[in-house]
Input
Amino acid sequence: MRTDKYDIAIIGGGPGGIATALEAVVHGIKNIILIDKADNHSSTIRKFYKENKRVDKDWKGKSVEIEGNIPFMNGTKESTLDFFDKLLDHDKIDTLFNTEVESITKNEGEEEFLITTGTQSFKSKAVVVAIGKMGKPNMPKYKIPPSLKAKVNFNLDGCSEGEKILVVGGGNSAAEYAYELADENNNVTLVYRKSEFTRLNPENEEILKTYNGQEKLRLRLNTDIISLENEHGKVKVNFDDGYFTLFDRIIYAIGGTSPSDFLKKCGIELDGENKPIYNEHYMTNIFFLYVAGDIAFNTGGSIAASLNHGYHIVNSYMRRTGKIYAHTDKVKEFLERNPEFK
Output
């Protein structure tokens, strides 16, 4: 049953937020709420991952050891979402979707945070901000003409067959967009400002090289875009090598930005790159206000590492409230009753 006072409130329903909620349940914390502005959890995975996209525990070739109580194995977009569905359905966690948090405040001398949405407010002893970056994709430095907005994408929404498409970016999302669109009978060019790819997993890099060799798509490396123009309804892309090309559509996959305005409003200190400052337990400068998931990475995020964030945050909360030893037996009993967590 929903209350207006919680032990832990989690803002954001991605892997970091889900892990924090579930680790809190495992450790015997009773009053937990997870709030997300989307209509379901894991909105970034749902929106930006293509169907059957590989989701690996070891991300970018870096092995990630699961430290907490939530297992995570290699799978696909669909199997990962199904896994999170089952975990969230399993336990009594209050969830509030289609709800955007407007402010998180704690006045001097008060022990609880006040969390305010457009229609209601809650109090919580601890708050975890686990909002992702991809909800606010990076924009190019040059202007996108308003008349071309229907031709400009930041994901695959609205794409169809038979289009001439330019994909912009050098990461895994850009690579996957490019070869998926090529498979759907589109004329695809992938442009990247550097002379070689440095962030691709080996499988995506091999597919790109193969498709380029087979002329299923074109790689245009060491090339940047200067500007866009509307030329009779087509996207005229002006490149820094002095050439231009007309496209039906342009898709940007150039990452996301930290939601710095919201973090500043919460009173969280940021570094020179507008990234939140936090300690080894992911606590910010404000006591019991944590960050987790994508915004707690210096680069792109790893789902397995996000799960570890939740584990460390809950352990920090338990230690600082003096509860960790009292609940050790409860953790053991919970894991025995729920073997899927092992």
Observations:
- DSSP finds eight helices and 17 strands in the chain.
- The mean pLDDT is 87.
